[in-house]
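subagent[fold] <- orchestrator: predict structure for attached chain, return tokens only, no commentary.
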Amino acid sequence: MSLTRIINKLFQPRLKELERYDREAGLLQQQVLARLVKAASDTEYGRQHLFAAVRGYEDFVRSTPLNTYEELKGCIDRMRHGERDILWPGKVKWYAQSSGTTNDKSKFIPVSNDGLQDIHYRGGQDAVTYYLHNNPKSRLFDGKALILGGSHSPNYNLPHSLVGDLSAILIENINPLANLVRVPKKKTALISDFEVKRERIAQETLHQNITNISGVPSWMLSVLTRVMELSGKEYLQEVWPRLEVFFHGGVAFTPYRKQYEKLITSPDMHYMETYNASEGFFGLQNDPADASMMLMVDYDVFYEFIPMDEFGKENPSVVPLWGVEKGKNYAIVISTSCGLWRYILGDTVSFTSTNPYKFVITGRTKHFINAFGEELIVDNAEKGLAYACSRTGAVVSEYTAAPVFMDNQAKCRHQWLIEFAKMPDNMELFEHLLDKRLQELNSDYEAKRYKNITLQPLEIVCAREGLFNEWLKMKGKLGGQHKVPRLSNSREHIDLLLKLNKA
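subagent[fold] -> orchestrator:
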């Protein structure tokens, strides 16, 4: 009997618990809220907001304001300096460093031990639970897992307190038994220089029996490319014949799928999307035939949602999970056992089902283009590019887009900077197809494009190979969970990229 078949038995009780999602999601969420509020009632934040008197969701809303990172930053900084019982009981030693806000280069998200165990690691365990259920012939544990991680560094020189990529925190604290089935070595996984790490990972894993890989698609692809260079093989299954699944997250997989399918041609390869962020682990693709993800409702995360047509208002409507509607675009609000209370996450989602609660990520509250009332979101961009690629044979590696507010002929348009892994057969056709598909997907964009009155046809600039990685390296963000901003209302990023593209 294979080791996987034996280990699979350990996941069966959890599978039974996950079946409650279909009928008891609202109840599970109410239990989560009660558990979180009770645990934090004697913290400084809990006392200030009368958590001891909270008896349900309505009480919680009345006593607790919506928060951005800026509102919680002062408390978090005190926690980073070693103060106890501020946002969550005890002392929090770990902080996930995430992309910055308007005022700061980086955010530092608290990762309590409760959050580590009851949010982040539970997500990884449930990914395996669903995968083994969907693939009863799997040999997942009969080989090694290649898991990409970032790096960490001391936090204000406090003993045993560190900041870094969430992936580095997870690797640092992982159960020692997991290291028996994980590569690369911890020392290699935590190297801060991504180019050095990439080479070492490729060397260490080249002759291993890799059955599964986990990480951000862009950085994993870079590692796999180096593995192929070292091996001299044409396809990855020639290097790792038992590779069966890629657990991916961090960025949308759509721009990378064609590159992976070109690299891994085995019909037995599987892809499973996960929604894990510095702030928590929120969703899993539980059905290979359905691109939407299951919202994980019994972790230490309580969810609320702001309709995007009210986002940014002084007093927007906010609904709990049991108040959402299918097909509507929402900004996510979370309360967690890491001490984030009614925290506006920055991601947007749309529910495809409410029995159970399944969703797709539609973009970011700040990553969109709405310079002319077009309200173009990342989900539109991903689907538009996928359509244009399918019709022209193109493969996109990376991209970003921003508005041209007015050129010397008083014309406005969207400018796309795209790095192609494979150029389209006809660039003009690609531009036309992308523009046409965006109009079909987004009525606001279509209205602004009507007769070229407000918006001219979009423009595509081809990026030279490696441009986006060079830009990330300049910013000190090569590797880890860092990613290229897809859409922006400003030209801050694209102007620097265009300058680099000419260098």
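orchestrator: received. Logging for downstream: The chain is about 40% helix and 25% strand. The longest strand covers residues 343-354.
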